[in-house]
């Protein structure tokens, strides 16, 4: 492992952790970004994203994965003024500001991210807070090197207090995209601990499994290694590295649950971003030291070698005993029969 300075775009924004590759004809270079949001400032966060992508592209990265909620922000430490049976006026105002920092999908921010992927000729996987009317979703967006928006995954199950600020995804946004570098998909944070949801991705043939997260604990690494072995796929987990000063200062923004307000230089999310091979070998990371670009060369032949040992939805499955049915139709709260009749006539 080495820290590699950039020579292509002046001084580097942050250091890249570089792991050497093997046969270049069967490898791709992937980067997971470990960096913080500019909280409540989406234009500045988009500017930062472009600097990070430019830096990764200067190292030859073909796939760049950002953390959970990078655009829009992960509201770590906030309760939004909620207790059972009441919500405070200050908490409601905090949600208004958080809602304003989210992005519409599609929308101008999505267009900018698509242009960014096209400009630097990369596949881009970006964690965002999606605004759909007055409901927010924790979402991952996918873009190709031609500058096309491919689609999204909405977090199916927010964790704990996340459920008061984010809506729930459904089975219609669990995509796996077939690309020239392999089949790419993503689950977000603790969704990755849901065995049936992982199996849905395995059933779609996922080969490059992206896991944007907000979990910096050591035990997260065990989950990532297990998924790589279980799925016979590369696992790319990206987390933010944040200090208290990356969030608004008190009293406007207060970290609840702590005995005392953290100092501005305190680390409130230590990262732990990592890249793991289908055989469970850690290729790069985990990094707990600061903001970083963490890169590795992925030998795609390793997928076949791993599947020879264990193919969870192939030769190691027993569908006559155990099987999974995924309901992948959109679940809409309101349907209009006249619209359905019009669609059937047009067909």
TrEMBL record:
Top class in the EC scheme: hydrolase
UniProt keyword terms in alphabetical order: Hydrolase
Positions of the catalytic residues: 68
InterPro entries membership: C-N_Hydrolase, C-N_Hydrolase_sf, Nitrilase/CN_hydratase_CS, Nitrilases_CHs
SUPFAM superfamilies reported for this sequence: Carbon-nitrogen hydrolase
Catalytic activity annotation: 3-cyano-L-alanine + 2 H2O = L-aspartate + NH4(+)
GO biological process: detoxification of nitrogen compound
A Pfam family of this chain: CN_hydrolase
Sequence ranges assigned to domain CN hydrolase in this UniProt record: 28-300
Residue stretches in coiled coil: none
Single GO MF descriptor: nitrile hydratase activity
Keyword Signal: no
Hydrolase listed as a keyword: yes
Enzyme nomenclature, EC number: 3.5.5.4
Record family assignment: Belongs to the carbon-nitrogen hydrolase superfamily. Nitrilase family.
The protein, known as: cyanoalanine nitrilase
Species of the source: Musa balbisiana
